[in-house]
Amino acid sequence: MSASSLRSFEYLEGLPGTTFNRLYKQPSTALAIFRRMLPHLAKSFVMALLYISHPMPVTDLEAWVRPDGRRERDNAVNLLERLHILAAATNPGKPRAYALTNPFAASLRLALTGGGNHHSFGVPYSTSEEDTMSITDLDEFARRQWEGVLGYMVGSTGMNIASEGVTLSQGVKILLASGRLVEARGKTVDITKDGFAFILQEVNAQVWTMLILYLQNAESLNMDEVDVLAFLFMLGSLELGLPYSKANLTQTQANMLEDLGDFGIVYQASPDSSYFYPTRLATTLTSDAGGLRSSSFASPADNNRGFIVIETNYRVYAYTSSNLQIAILQLFARLITRYPNMVAGKVTRESIRRAVSMGITSDQIISYLTTHAHPQMAKNQPVLPPTVVDQIRLWQLEGDRMKATVGFLFKDFNSQAEFQAPCRYAEEIGVLVWKHEGQRKFFVTRHEQVAAYLRNKSGKGG
Amino acid sequence: MNAVDGSDHYNKTSDEPPPSLLTIILDTNAHAWALLAPTLPLSAAIANLLVFINAHLAFNNSNKVAIIASHTQRAEFLYPIPSEDDSRQANGSTHNGAQNGLDGDMNMTDGNEANYAATADDANHYRPFRHIQTTLLSAMSKLYKTTSPESLTPTTSIAGALTLALTYINKQSIAFSTTTSSKTNADPLLAPSDPNSIQPATLNPRILILSVSGDLAHQYIPIMNTIFACQRLTIPIDICKIAGDSVFLQQASDATHGTYIALTHPRGLLQYLMLGFLPDQSSRKYLVPPTAVGVDFRAACFCHRKVVDVGFVCSICLSIFCSPPEGAVCLTCGTYLQLGEYGGKPAVVAKRKKKRKKGADE
């Protein structure tokens, strides 16, 4: 479920229905969306409906889910409808029934059974032996490129990061600036609040954020966003360590390869070679967090084992020699000593306050520490010492006492009953943020369904 | 438990459900499939099964699958297949064999290795799906090629297949808990039986049996043992009963909280699989299971392997017999059993009633 709540995916949800229609024509896209974006229960629904010959009555679906799972069911059905996967059809004389929408269902069936002539899972390319890249080479390449991007962003914080011979293309720099992750000031670049948030994310989330940025920019580069998205989802279904042919790619997609090479998402020996290798960054695009934890990478030597130890006395020990990791750590900790393979420091009120003032939230710090915890630490339950977690939160709370949520206010209800029904509905679909019984007002993050509900109701009433 | 110190909110529970390992036991009893051929030929069943397996793998990138054939006289892995290289190594050179063969352990080739060269390249098929398809089909044809007509008995070795499944699940769980690195020292063998131990990341194993054969009374004891092992390890056993009827498989699903569906229309196998057996443990929490109406709790006797309604039970070791054993000595533990006045009419009831009345009067 965390996958679908990722901020980046809201972009996809906002796409118009026709775009979805075109997207779902590719089996690899249908499979990737199914795998990456749906909550677990929704997957069960989709699979149950996939090979059914006639639509499933709404009442049947409701009867299938336990009463205490109603909330999850409504969430799942809602998301499926938002992604244009499920549609409730009302035929006269028959009860309301759910069915999968067609391009999606057909594509998913094709993905499961194979066949067709869509080439959406990549055309492998046979190379001569001496040209092949090993998986470690690819990992090394991807790491170097990606750390180069991150290093460019963090570079402004004062730490001097050796660029390891990575030269960022102008396109990447423009992209970072247009996504407001960095701000260029003359010759130097300054990282923004969004940039800090970006840096503390997991690698997979970072890649997605970057790709969504790329998508948003695609139109200005005269690229078809469906083409771009379909290509990204195809990359996710490729096999690590195998070369793929460029022959079947559209012009847009061939252009993309070059840009993606800058991020380390794909590797090609030269821009005009006839094949490319996807790197781990690409092949894990459509895996979920579970798959990534075991396969992601950060520093090649220690296989992305966590490296941070934090004690109850706020001391931090980080077993790393990577300048990038040290620079990131320095964002919220005061580093005191540095050894060849380790740095030691302390999390202090000042260091956290400074991080918060730069736009980093305590939750980001905590999740960064948790995901990079040393294996010895990871054995603890909970992973981080509770005192430290609490204190980091408290230090942040000192400064900000308000939380803003973008959303919609519903008010001016005539009667208590009229107020309560939509309010309960909003709570059930999980969009309710706040309500006030006396003033008959409530506040939601999303208004479409509630508005449709109200319209339905008034339609029935009058 | 820990609600007092409020430490709940420090446990960042991953809302991502854990990957699940589905072990499918396919009953390849040729007799039964031949009988089924008019409604559901084996080839159609396997095609349906493949779609189901792909659907399972599509659920989650790290989902795993294993398929075991429960053949007439043996049980065999269909996927993943034991790699031939390793067995050769273990037999031939003692040098390398020391590494692999120390505990007689065999490596299983999974998707990512050399086998890919053999699978034809096809851009229209997701590679992992295609790989399983080719492996399974070739293993199936190999299985039937090596079956001699003499060995075709109308039974199936479910017990052997279940044991293989359990060993495979155990091996995979150990491998999984070491790769996730969250548990390095803890003994994964002990972990599942201890309900209090918190496991941050575990494999969610389950077993699905596609059964076509009838009664399996002669394997009663080994089957029950595997069922109890599954119960202890909280591995649900799902039964998809395509034909025939067997008492013990019902008990297996009942004891392990699995799903039991006897197909009324075998032709619709795929829909049964997709609706009833695809949801794993984490989604089953929210779903109403397809209910088995009545579970047949009868047992088989230890002496003649007959299914009995009423039998004799040894008071020491709880062995079941259909008739009093010879010489009134338990066949399992050798205890001498006093049968008392077995066969006598229980005419005592009337007397007791009178006595009670008397007592009440006094």
Quaternary form:
heterodimer
> Largest beta sheet of chain B: what is the strand line-up?
3-2-1-4-5-6
Structural class of chain B: alpha/beta
Strand content of chain B: 5-15%
Number of distinct helices of chain A: 23
Mean pLDDT of chain A: 79
Sketch the major β-sheet of chain A: 4 strands, antiparallel
Count of DSSP strands of chain B? 10
Please give the share of residues in helix of chain A. 40-55%
* Distance linking N and C termini of chain A: 39 Å
Low-confidence stretches of chain B: 1-8, 10-14, 85-104, 110-120, 181-200
In helices, the fraction of residues of chain B equals 25-40%
Strand portion of chain A, in percent?
Answer: 5-15%
Biggest interface pair, counts = A-B, 64 and 52 residues
Strands ordered across the widest β-sheet of chain A: 9-10-12-11
| Overall radius of gyration of chain A | 25 Å
Low-confidence stretches of chain A: 1-5, 157-164, 289-303
Mean pLDDT of chain B, to the nearest integer, reads 74
C-alpha geometry of chain A: globular
Please compute the radius of gyration of chain B using only Cα atoms.
Answer: 25 Å
Family (chain B): Belongs to the TFB4 family.
Pfam families (chain B): Tfb4
Subcellular location (chain B): Nucleus
Region (Disordered) (chain B): 82-112
Spell out the key features of this protein.
heterodimer, A: about 450 residues, alpha+beta, four-stranded antiparallel beta sheet, three-stranded antiparallel beta sheet, 23 helices, globular, disordered N terminus, B: about 350 residues, alpha/beta, six-stranded mixed beta sheet, two-stranded antiparallel ribbon, 11 helices, 10 strands, nucleus (chain B), zinc (chain B), General transcription and DNA repair factor IIH subunit TFB4 (chain B)
Structure description:
The complex is a heterodimer of chains A (about 450) and B (about 350). Chain A has helices spanning about 1-5, 10-15, 15-25, 25-35, 40-50, 60-65, 70-80, 100-115, 135-155, 170-180, 195-200, 205-220, 225-235, 250-265, 280-285, 290-295, 325-330, 350-355, 360-370, 375-380, 385-400, 415-430, 450-460, and strands spanning about 55, 85-90, 95-100, 180-185, 190, 245, 265, 275-280, 310, 315-320, 335-340, 340-345, 410, 430-435, 440-445. Chain A is of the alpha+beta class and about 450 residues long. In chain B, the strands form three sheets. Chain B has a six-stranded mixed sheet with strand order 3-2-1-4-5-6, sandwiched between helices. In chain B, strand 2 (about 65-70) and strand 3 (about 75-80) form a beta hairpin. At the A-B interface, helix 4, helix 5, helix 8 and helix 16 of A face helix 2, helix 5 and helix 9 of B.
